[in-house]
Design goal:
disordered N terminus; mainly alpha; 5 helices
């Protein structure tokens, strides 16, 4: 009987711990709305800028929004797929911003900048693929 009560206590504490870590639908909705509001604020800051600085700011704002959305999905429905999506969005955002910053340069410097941005993107994608491979082997 004591063993049965102990098992019941352990099972119920696990259930409470799982529920405490999970995000409710309402919390998810509020967090999603906050991401949208933060994006609008960031985008408004960009509107005051000019030329390529405005473009870079826009890419940074959009990248931040996409990463935040992916992280929210990972928090709401944790999975290997959502975890990978977070990493992919970070790589994509970093690449988009780096590529946009290259537009400030000309000629060979611009080409070198774009190649470096592309190389960093390729490295990030390779790192994501490397993370996924050991999990598939198990």
């Amino acid at each position: 009987m004591k063993k049965h009560l102990l098992m019941l206590a352990v099972a119920s504490s696990c259930l409470v711990a799982t529920q405490a870590g999970a995000m409710s639908q309402d919390e998810y909705k509020v967090a999603k709305e906050k991401i949208e509001a933060d994006y609008k604020v960031d985008k408004t800051k960009c509107d005051a800028m000019k030329d390529n600085a405005k473009d870079v700011c826009g890419k940074e704002a959009k990248g931040k929004q996409n990463v935040a959305k992916a992280e929210l999905e990972q928090q709401f429905k944790p999975s290997e797929s959502n975890s990978r999506k977070v990493a992919e969005e970070k790589v994509k955002a970093s690449y988009e911003v780096a590529k946009e910053k290259c537009d400030d340069q000309k000629g060979d410097a611009k080409n070198a900048c774009e190649k470096e941005a592309k190389a960093e993107e390729a490295k990030g994608k390779a790192d994501i693929r490397a993370m996924a491979k050991p999990a598939k082997m198990q």
